[in-house]
Amino acid sequence: MAAKTIDTGVRTGNPTPETACNFQARTLNFRPSMSDKQKPLILTGAKPSGELTLGNYLGAIKNWAVMLDQYECFFPIVDLHAITVRYVPAELRRRTYQCLAQYIACGLDPEKSHIFLQSHVTGHTELSWILSCLTPVGDLHRMTQFKEKAAKPGASVNAGLLFYPVLMAADILLYNADRVPVGEDQKQHLELARNIAQRFNQTYSETFNIPEPFISKAGARVMSLQDPEKKMSKSDENPGEAILLLDSPKEIRKKILSAVTDSGREVRMAEDKPGIGNLLNIFSAVTDRSIEELEKEFAESGYGEFKNALADALIAKLEPFQERYRRLIEDKTYMHRVLKEGTEVAQARACKTLSKVYRKAGFIERLR
After folding, report:
1. Is residue 71 a part of any domain in this protein?
2. Considering 231, 255, 273, 352, which one is annotated as catalytic?
3. Catalytic-labelled residue, pool 149, 340, 356, 360
């Protein structure tokens, strides 16, 4: 059976990705990295731990897609981070393909960025080990996410969960990223990465950039539909709390109509109306209309009419995305080609960084 193709503009060559570093300077047969054009490098990724939510898209991915021309963008799918909790291997593979297809469907053009799997690039775990030898255990125990997860009743805490932030630091420093888009829940991890980079530079001489946080002004903060005091998350146990990008029109409408609102019936933004305020923020982000405009339009409406209009807008917004996703997820040949090309660029940069790190740390050059 002939492989399906998707008109995305990707080249049809079949490059062979680097599988390991030999720490020798050499010319690799792949497209030049955009870093040669002196663009600032931005790196950010996501775990393939579940379907992406509307919050992931409006709060992050939508903004990544508009950075592609201005920055050299590396978008690793951090599958090594996904195994710090119990998981099913076949499910991890399925979700990894799912995450890749959703990335591209959301507008992360592989022709303008580098999308790859963390586990496909030699260097993440090697650099993580070196960095861990410079990281006090006390710093890791102070990480808020670790403390929260370890405190849960019946929690199974492993060393990977504790050292998760060191691997995250390695993900960033391996590519000498200039900026890292982060949410509130990752700021502490980025600060640790900055501290580790400074500690390595002080110990062995200047090697790593000190990555700066990239805070997008346009990012929408999307809260849970059932608890507007907390962020919408793909890990929410209650399926009604989050809109998934792959939800059917029926599921979207049901979740919006069931969303928590507030006393009264006025559709307006106010401190004492976090529920309707969250829905207004979503409506504004999906339609690119101001809150003030929406308040005027629905000034004489009740919550029911407003929610149905929001559901209509969401369904219309996600329909083209879902159509692109359905085509992509069936085309493994295309997705493999995207990963190979992304891996080549990422591996070349990783080898260069790791070679420098090994030399400065005192290791003898690897022999071929």
Report:
1. yes
2. 231
3. 149
CA 190 to chain centroid? 14
Active-site residue, selected from the candidate residues 234, 317, 356, 360: 234
- Cβ atoms within 10 A of the Cβ of 21, count? 20
Asked whether residue 226 is assigned to any structural domain, the reply reads no
Distance CA 275, CA 262 (A): 6
Task: Please give the residue range of the domain that contains residue 107.
Answer: 34-215+331-361
**Mean residue pLDDT across the chain:** 87
Burial of 1 from C-beta contacts in 10 A (0-12 / 13-18 / 19+): exposed
Task: Report the C-alpha gap between 111 and 104 in whole angstroms.
Answer: 10
Do 243 and 192 fall into the same domain? no
* pLDDT tens readout for residues 194-243: 999 999 999 999 999 999 998 765 556 799 999 998 989 877 678 889 99
- Please check whether residues 171 and 291 belong to one and the same domain: no
Per-residue pLDDT, 231: 87
Is 152 considered catalytic here?
A: no
Number of domains in the chain: 2
Helix pair angle (332-361, 187-204), 10° resolution: 40
233, β-bridge pairs: none
Mark whether 231 is an active-site residue: yes
- In single-letter form, the type of residue at position 180 comes to V
Give me the pLDDT at residue 9, please: 39
pLDDT of residue 236: 67
The reported pLDDT for the residue numbered 22 is: 56
The CATH number for 251's domain is 1.10.240.10
